[in-house]
Specification:
Blueprint lengths: L2 H12 L3 H23 L2 H17 L10 H19 L7 H11 L9 H17 L3 H12 L4 H8 L3 H18 L1 H4 L9 H8 L8 H13 L1 H18 L8 H11 L4
Helix pairs in contact: 1-2, 2-3, 2-4, 3-4, 3-14, 4-8, 5-6, 7-8, 7-9, 8-9, 9-13, 11-12, 12-13
Length: 265
């Protein structure tokens, strides 16, 4: 859908056109649910967050002024509901030992015959468990960039931080996730250690990395064989994140949202 088409569709939905609202729901609800699922780490909480997000956003659609992209605004609303869910819940991240044990138990040997759907589900569960071990800030950066595939600028806008800080969080998140997924990736668990990169990062606090610092760090990584090899391993981790299923919105959530909004296919 072109920007002009979406703008016209949004205007119609804001004017009360239920068909236009349904088309926007169909376009964005899977993204909202997938974000909620990866951030909550479990389906029941994700259903609640997704449903509350869609109801809040579409009930207040008339107030959306287009100061950001509609998708960015929806992620911001979803983020707000996820934070509320986290505060009132008792969810705790899975310990790394659990991830390792689950990987060893659930991820089958390539030599054994396996149903592809079962294998995909098992790998997804291991990856989600590994993502759950990340701190909230790191997991959020990973989900927005590597699952939702937002640009660094878009992801930073959703979170409300500078682009440099978002990139720093993302890099650390990828390193931590790769370590947790070592059993799945069948790689050695030796820690990555590059003195040059350490030196480039040493003088910057997490919240103080600006565009100039990013350029300096990226320049080092482009010319460093050790960092290049590590980045290739990180790319394999990123590809696993982007291949995660979970975009199918539960029928009950769809029905509840449409019933409350009065929108129907």
């Amino acid at each position: 859908m072109s920007d002009a088409s979406e703008t016209a569709l949004l205007a119609s939905a804001q004017a009360g056109d239920l068909r236009a609202m349904e088309l926007l729901l169909a376009r964005y609800e899977a993204r909202v649910y997938r974000y909620a699922l990866r951030m909550c780490g479990n389906d029941p909480d994700a259903r609640d967050v997704a449903q509350e997000t869609l109801l809040t956003a579409f009930r207040n659609l008339a107030g959306f002024r287009g100061e950001a992209q509609l998708s960015t605004w929806l992620y911001q609303v979803a983020r707000s509901h996820w934070i509320k869910q986290r505060r009132r819940g008792k969810w705790e991240p899975a310990p790394s030992q659990y991830v390792e044990e689950r990987a060893a138990r659930d991820v089958p040997d390539d030599r054994s015959p396996q149903d592809h759907r079962t294998h995909a589900r098992q790998v997804t569960e291991v990856i989600q468990a590994a993502m759950n071990t990340l701190g909230d800030d790191f997991r959020e950066a990973l989900v927005l960039r590597d699952v939702e595939e937002l640009t660094a600028e878009e992801a930073a806008a959703v979170v409300g931080i500078e682009v440099g800080a978002l990139k720093s969080r993302l890099h650390r998140a990828r390193l931590q996730l790769k370590q947790s997924l070592a059993a799945v990736l069948e790689e050695q668990r030796d820690g990555f250690d590059c003195p040059g990169l350490k030196e480039a990062l040493a003088s910057y606090a997490l919240s103080d990395i600006d565009q100039a610092a990013c350029i300096q760090i990226e320049s080092h990584m482009d010319g460093c064989v050790r960092c290049t090899e590590a980045c290739e391993a990180l790319k394999r981790t990123v590809s696993l994140c982007r291949a995660l299923p979970g975009g199918d919105v539960p029928v009950a959530v769809k029905a509840a949202v449409r019933q409350a909004l009065g929108a129907h296919p």
